[in-house]
Amino acid sequence: MTRLQGKVAVVTGAARGLxxxxxxxxxxxxxxxMLTDILDGEETSQRLRDAGHQAAFTVMDVAKRDxxxxxLSDTASRFGGxxxxxxxxxxxxxxxxxxxxxxxxxxxxxxxxxGPMLGMQAVIPYMRERGGGSIINIxxxxxxxxxPETISYGSSKAALANMTKAxxxxxxxxxxxxxxxxxxxxxxxxxxxxxxxxxxxRIPLGRMGTPExxxxxxxxxxxxxxxxxxxxxxxxxxxxxxx
Length: 243
Known about the structure:
This protein is an alpha/beta fold.
């Protein structure tokens, strides 16, 4: 399938796990993809190029204000523009209200919330030049499925979901034809999460999700199939928040 033929995407946190699966599926659907991460993602990028796709990798810390401009400029120069931004980079540090450290909270917010904010702010001019675009922020079902230990992670993702809606409404009312949506994954089988979890028995579908299933959801929101979908929270958790 080539629903994204001629489109250009930037995916953060793309060296491994969900981000690598997202970048792979975007390429398979015809998009040129710039992978970014603080980890080395050149192997993932090379694998995509060996498969005949347009892909490149650059190191980027999403929380650094000055990091976004050169990455987006390089992406647009290399591939001709930017149509899709997937803010996937994130960090989870378990803590409760009694154990959390303010510096850790600020660091989590820097990656999970301020990074996507900087990315959205920086990418809008590029999308406007292309006549529209799709911003997809990877939040979490922790926005609604609450554990005491997710005080920093869950609250950062809840703020990201709210910010996504604000961006969507702003862009819509400005006539930019830029859509913004958040995806809220539950447990997925990745190297970070593992292939099993105590939560599995609580998931109505009886299993963890796969990175490929999440990537398919990203492609839907990135494509014209979702042309009338914006300011939406899409939960991909096997029904966990409803259980």
